[in-house]
Amino acid sequence: MGAIEKSPKISLIGTLAMLIEAPGDFDMTQQGRVWALADALSSWPNVQEAVIGVTNVLLVFEQPPDDIGVLSASVVELWHRLPSRMADGKLIEIPVVYGSEYGFDLPAVAMRAGLSEREVIRIHSDGEYTVCAVASSPGFGYLHGLDPRIYMSRKSVPSLNMSAGSVTIGGMQTGVAVLTSPNGWNAIGWASVAMFDPERTQPSLMLPGDRVRFRIDRIEL
Amino acid sequence: MIEILTSHAFNTIQDRGRHGARSLGVSTSGAMDPVALEAGNALLGNDRDAAGIEIQTFPFRLRFSRDTTFALTGADHDATLAGVTVPSWWCRRAKAGDILSISAPRRGARVYVTFGGGIDLPRVLGSRSTHLRAGFGGMEGRALQAGDIVPVGATQRADDGRVDFGVEPPDVATAGSGLPKERVLRVRVMRAGEHDLFSEAMRATFWSTTWKISARSDRGGYRLTGGKLTLDVPVEMRSHGVVAGVVQVPPAGEPIIQMSDANTAGGYPKMAAVIQADLWRLGQAAPGSFIAFSEVSYQDAVAAMAPVNDYLARLRATADLYRAL
């Protein structure tokens, strides 16, 4: 018997939002299908926005839909029919000052990984990452592709004032903090890149499907 | 133009919100009580989208630099213009030099001042709402402070027509939703994604508890105390989009209702979502006050918006008529 393709889980958040969660594990194939789904759904009537998450899409409506059942069925049908979108966005290179006063969690990450700080830096800057979703704060990209050797769980007590530009690791993801604010991710360095500017034609530097490389600008241990 | 004379923390310029930028990680912001803001605009004949001032810390004082029509809506409060009382849910014309003073509400949390022509600051990503965390929109992306000069747009006509009239606030005017009998605001919600993952006992706790809105509540979210909701088997949710009104349950078990300034994404299990027809009421619930949840179906949640929409349509028609008299 062949594998039966599961359907996404669909649930409502009030009358103006519908969450569509891809079945199965998180991987880039499912994420690519989520991107394709969001692209297609964003032009549907009554859809104000299709908001990409990690293997899910939130549809925000202008008005409460007339028939949730019919709409859900159409979404499921589309999910099974759509080809996955490749991570074919632009390549963004981000110079990083690793360590330094901003990368205050680097020693802890190295210790947890059983590596030297320089090895952590090498592994992080060797990787190529994919922007899965932009969420949480303006222009913040959830970057997938971290080497499992430097996974580091989020802190139970967030750092109270992490600086904008902090290069961070949160679980199996990495990212660049956009705002100076409390943050539970682990800071390993700092990048002086304008991640978000509301006055730009494209305010967010990172978009889903973009690829990111971190380049060693300087190491301060 | 108007000049801000006295303003404490967190008083901001807000319109109906910044919609369509969630995909960039930008929360909607917007008035916590959109019905009050829209009513204030309707009293003056403004567009629905016009921006006003949301006041949530008091006292607040401003001076008019030129003759300007304005309206006061939202929480039930005392105000004076040039020393003369102005009722709430009322519009009036101020003369150049007049000072408007607004004191802490007796009931409710947020007062709205709207101005004929609306606040004339540039739109950022389609809205004039202040995004405090990101620092854009409104007045340089920050809360108002004494000394700020806020531009107000021109109205269509030199003579704005008749002013000095008021309307019933929506909680009085809309049937079936009158003042809470007990001191508990009943909020209608629909079940959300992870409701059924909670045990029957936990669900019972959710529906039967009188929840207190904690002092650690703001435009970003209301933290609730009074009970603990835990899952037998904790779930790891992947980061997903959320909207205002969603009731999330963090591992510690005390629910949080996301409000206007909430992040665009969340990862906690979702118990329920406050329906659109009650979100403005919740926006007027002050820290320290109590709420309880009632469940409604999707159809009932949709239907519940009709009285609110009818109220605003009636108000606009009445105000248009008055101004033309």
Could you characterize the architecture of this molecule?
- The complex is a heterodimer of chains A (about 220) and B (about 325).
- Chain A is elongated and about 60 Å long.
- The longest helix of chain A is centred in the N-terminal third of the chain and has 14 residues, at about 30-40.
- In chain A, a hairpin with a 2-residue loop joins strand 9 and strand 10 (about 175).
- Chain A is built from four helices and 13 strands.
- With about 220 residues, chain A is of the alpha+beta class.
- In chain A, about 20% of the residues lie in helices and about 35% in strands.
- Chain A has helices spanning about 30-40, 70-80, 105-115, 115-125, and strands spanning about 10, 15-20, 45-50, 55-60, 90-100, 130-135, 140-145, 160, 165-170, 175, 180-185, 185-190, 210-220.
- In chain A, strands 7-6-13-5-12-9-10 form a seven-stranded mixed β-sheet.
- Chain B is an alpha+beta fold and about 325 residues long.
- Chain B is built from six helices and 21 strands.
- Chain B has helices at about 35-45, 170-175, 200-210, 275-285, 300-305, 305-325; strands at about 1-5, 10-15, 50-55, 60-65, 70-75, 80, 85, 90-95, 100, 105-115, 150, 165, 185-190, 210-215, 220-225, 240, 245-250, 255-260, 265, 270-275, 290-295.
- In chain B, strand 17 (about 245-250) and strand 18 form a beta hairpin.
- In chain B, helix 1 packs parallel to helix 6 (about 305-325).
- The model of chain B has no long low-confidence stretch (mean pLDDT about 95).
- The interface between A and B is large, with 42 and 38 residues.
